[in-house]
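Task: complex structure prediction.
Instruction: return C-alpha cells for all chains below.
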Amino acid sequence: MGANLVPGEHLPDLALPDHAGVVRTLSEIAGGDPLVVQFYRGWFCPKERAWFPEMLALAERAEVAYTAMVSVSVEPPQVQAATRAGLGARWPFLSDESRTAQAELDLLEHTDTEHRPYVPTVFVLHPDLTIHSAYNGYWFWGRPSIADLWRDLREISRAVRPDWEVPRA
Amino acid sequence: MSRAPSWLAWLPHRPQGAHAATSVRSLDGANVGWLAGWISPDRPRSDARRIDPAALDSDGPPAAVSLVWPVRSRWPLFDDPTVVHAIRLAATAPHLTTMSTFTADATHFAGSLLATDASLVGRWPGWWSVDPFARLGPRHCLLIDHGLLASRVAVLGPGTQRRAGAPWPATW
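Output:
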C-alpha cells in the first residue's frame, strides 16, 4: 500500500468506468457523504465471497444513513455487472481493468501472479475523500467487521453533520 | 455536489421561459404535449414537480421515457414501503440513461422518470417492464425529442435515503 494511504491523507479522486461502463469519480459517488471504498481481488477469491455479505449488510444500513459505498477491482465491467447482480448489490462497482489506479495506489498483490489483483483493502473516507481509516485485508481477519465500519462512520458523521446533536427549537 | 433545484412539467404547449423543453409522443406516434424543465430556486409553475438537476440537459439526446405521473391526491408518502422498495429496484434497473423521482413537498412521492436510449426500446420492448415505479401510479410510455434529458444516469446506489424535499437520487 502506498505510504500516503493513511488516516489524515486524501485518497486520490479516481475516475474509472462503473459496472455499466459509465466513468465515475469517487467524489461523484460520495456525493457529499461519507464513503466506504472496497478494493477486492475478484469473484474468483473465496475470501471475497465470504466477506461480501458484510458489504451487503452494510449497504442495508448505508442506504438509510446518507453513506455511499463503492467496490473496485481489476475485473472488466461485464464481470462486475454479473457479480453485482448475483450478489443483489445496489452500490456501484468500478473497473480498473487497465490497472492504472492499482499502480497509482501501489495496491498490486504481488504474491498472486496469476490474477495480479488488488490487495484487499477497505478505506473509510470523509466526504472530501480524507482517509479516516484503512484496513489491510490480505489476511482475512484484517478486514473490517460491520461493527468496525459502524464505529468509523459514526465518528465521521459526528464530525461532518452540523446537526449531529439534535437541533433545539 | 449541490445544485439549484430543478423542475419538470408536462404541458399541452411549449411554455415560455423554460430552461429546456421537448415535444412528447406516445408509442403510436400521437403528439401528447411537451415536457419542460426549469432550473430555479422557486417553483416556476404550480403544476411543476421537482426533478434531480442531473437528469436535465438542454443538449440531451432523444429518449424513450417511462413516466409515472400520479395526480396529487394519489401521491404516496416517500417513506411508504412500496416507494422504498421501488427505489431499491431502480438501483439495479438496466440500461438507464436518466432517472429521477419527483417531489413537490417534503414528504410525498410525486412520480418518477426513467429514460433509455430511444433506439433500444425498438430492439427490446421489454425495457418498458423494468420500471419499478409503474405500480405506484399511472405510467406513460413516451418518446421524446432531443433537448431535455441527460444521457448519463447519476449514481444510484446505495444511497436510497432521500434528502428531505429533494427528489431521489439528487444530493443537496
